[in-house]
User: What shape does this take?
Amino acid sequence: MDIQPYTSTETLAVGRPWLMSMLGIEANLSITLDLSAFDENLHWLEASKYQPERKLKSGIPLGKNATSGLYEPYAAVTNEVQTVTITGGPTGGTFTLTFSGQTTAAIAYNATPAAVQTALEALSNVNPGDITVTGTAGGPYTLTFGGQYLGSDVAQASATGSFTGGTSPAVAVTTTTAGGTPTASDGTQLFAGFLFTEVSFFPGATKVAAPLMVHGQIDVAKLPVAFDPADVPAGSNTQFVYKV
Assistant: This one.
């Protein structure tokens, strides 16, 4: 019996769930990546006995290292983190938080972080995902800003308490981490573009050629690595057009 191989060729936009559309032609720049700067699982997947090459995920935001000339993961600016602390050991009462001119409904002195987050999300200027609240019931509460405030230096919230019991109970807000601060100074703090396709490389490799997307529209929510919307035009938190 004579068995002949069957060959077919297809062009598919696979491995790019973040890509909404290419504008015009698929004009991508050829760049070189510094593989030592990418992390397993976050940026690439380990090889298997059936697939010896490791795979870098497509859609990784990139920046260019000014010293080496190689491209690395984009070093996004910091996200704002604020802390709400209740002192004096109150046994009753409530407090409110005011953010950018909007004030929450009364929050119980011993509220859970989830309850504080719900109160904040009820504000007209806070959408779900804009502020994540963690901590313990009764505080301190850690407010981490994301969503439309991701990477932004937002105004510090304020608090007003109406407590009972305890010893001179009070509530205060402090800024733990200011948003919008560059986390690198080697050039990678400047956004250069997105890794257009999955890129395979063998273990032990230190560099690999790759295509940098310079013209297209992407869905930020589907990127494999968080992108800093502070570099996106106002109102473009879910869609981003990058072109040269």
